[in-house]
Amino acid sequence: MQATMSDEMLELIAQRFRLLSDPMRLRILHQLQAGEKSVTELVEATGASQPNVSKHLSTLRTHGLVRRRQEGNMAYFSIGAPFIFDVCNTVCDSMKDELEQKTSLLGQIG
Amino acid sequence: MQATMSDEMLELIAQRFRLLSDPMRLRILHQLQAGEKSVTELVEATGASQPNVSKHLSTLRTHGLVRRRQEGNMAYFSIGAPFIFDVCNTVCDSMKDELEQKTSLLGQIG
DNA sequence: ACACTCAATGCTTACATGGTTATATGTTTT
DNA sequence: AAAACATATAACCATGTAAGCATTGAGTGT
């Protein structure tokens, strides 16, 4: 990170994190990691309502995190910003590490 | 990321991102990157009110992102989860990349 | 004990956001 | 053109949360 950080920059970064701060959106993105999916497929996979999925997809698209392709009646969505998975992996790794630390501490006690 | 993702796991990941989704908290963390700082120092550096800073520090601490050390009258805070900077760097890099892409596209047009 | 300083804690307000329901738009099929 | 299907949008409600303000709590020095 830089030495100084402008307000706009901070706002942009925060915004990106905010997009990733919702379980349902994470679920959608997780599904898209396997490849392009239609709205209906995402509805089935996530268990959310169709309007809910559509709205999330809309906000994700507005911010460039997913792409949309229309084919006939259906809309196919796919990942639009690969950085997502780098970020998620980093977070998952950190959680795994912390979990292991706690586990090993428990091992020392027991 | 794994093939399947439990609800609790998604909630935990989302929670971490939520912590990073606020500009003021990012500002605080950014300040702490340079090293341990007291609340007063953070108040001065961020321009926020003291209660506001304290509250953010409290939530960050609750989730293990910062550590607290008391010395006499003052409380010194420091980064408690190094993964933060990996994540932030990934996001910053992605934004830089996208910016460069847009810039080069503009170059092609102009 | 008192005053002073640093930090934390309610309390309230204002605003953003996620979810639901109902409806609209758009496309294919009959 | 009418019905059926896929997706998007609008209106609404409930909840969460960030910021401000006043206050309390905790430590230090007189």
TrEMBL record, chains A, B:
Keywords, alphabetical: DNA-binding, Transcription, Transcription regulation
SMART domains associated with the record: HTH_ARSR (SM00418)
Domain of life from the UniProt record: Bacteria
Keyword Transcription regulation appears in the UniProt entry: yes
Matching CDD domains: HTH_ARSR
Gene3D superfamilies reported for this sequence: Winged helix-like DNA-binding domain superfamily/Winged helix DNA-binding domain (1.10.10.10)
All residue ranges annotated as the HTH arsR-type domain in the record: 5-99
InterPro entries linked: ArsR-like_HTH (IPR011991), HTH_ArsR_DNA-bd_dom (IPR001845), Metal_resp_trans_reg (IPR051011), WH-like_DNA-bd_sf (IPR036388), WH_DNA-bd_sf (IPR036390)
PANTHER family noted in UniProt: ARSENICAL RESISTANCE OPERON REPRESSOR ARSR-RELATED (PTHR43132), ARSR FAMILY TRANSCRIPTIONAL REGULATORY PROTEIN (PTHR43132:SF9)
Protein name (Swiss-Prot/TrEMBL): Winged helix-turn-helix transcriptional regulator
Originating organism: Thalassolituus marinus
Source organism phylogeny: Bacteria, Pseudomonadati, Pseudomonadota, Gammaproteobacteria, Oceanospirillales
